[in-house]
Amino acid sequence: MDIVEISKILSNKTRVNILKWLKSPEDNFPPHQDIDHFDDGVCVGFIQDKTGLSQSTISTYLNSMQSADLVIPTRHGKWTYYRRNEEVIQAYVDSLKDEL
């Protein structure tokens, strides 16, 4: 876990919002039509709709978050779902407490 890299990623309000929304997906996104749970996260399309940003921008954001292990992708057919990686997020928070 790279505290500086994660801090850079979290310097963007939309990326922070995505992590906030994924913390309680049932409160922030509509139910999925083909899956009746949020265990694997939220479909990229729902995240894009909520942000109002382009698909390419959201893909770039999610890819950077995935490369830092902040989110975990799961494929369902042609769709990718994202959920928070709670272990990495907690390790980041703990590192901030310990190092700063």
TrEMBL record:
Task: Reply yes or no: does the keyword DNA-binding apply.
Answer: yes
TM ranges = none
Q: Which PROSITE patterns match?
A: HTH_ARSR_2
Which Gene3D superfamilies does the entry link to?
Answer: Winged helix-like DNA-binding domain superfamily/Winged helix DNA-binding domain (1.10.10.10)
Ordered alphabetically, the record's keywords are:
DNA-binding, Transcription, Transcription regulation
Which domain of life does the UniProt lineage start with? Bacteria
Signal peptide start and end residues: none
Q: Which GO terms describe its molecular function?
A: DNA binding; DNA-binding transcription factor activity
Domain called HTH arsR-type: residue spans: 1-100
Keyword Amino-acid biosynthesis (UniProt): no
Please identify the protein, giving its name as recorded. Answer: Transcriptional regulator
> In which organism is this protein found?
Flagellimonas allohymeniacidonis
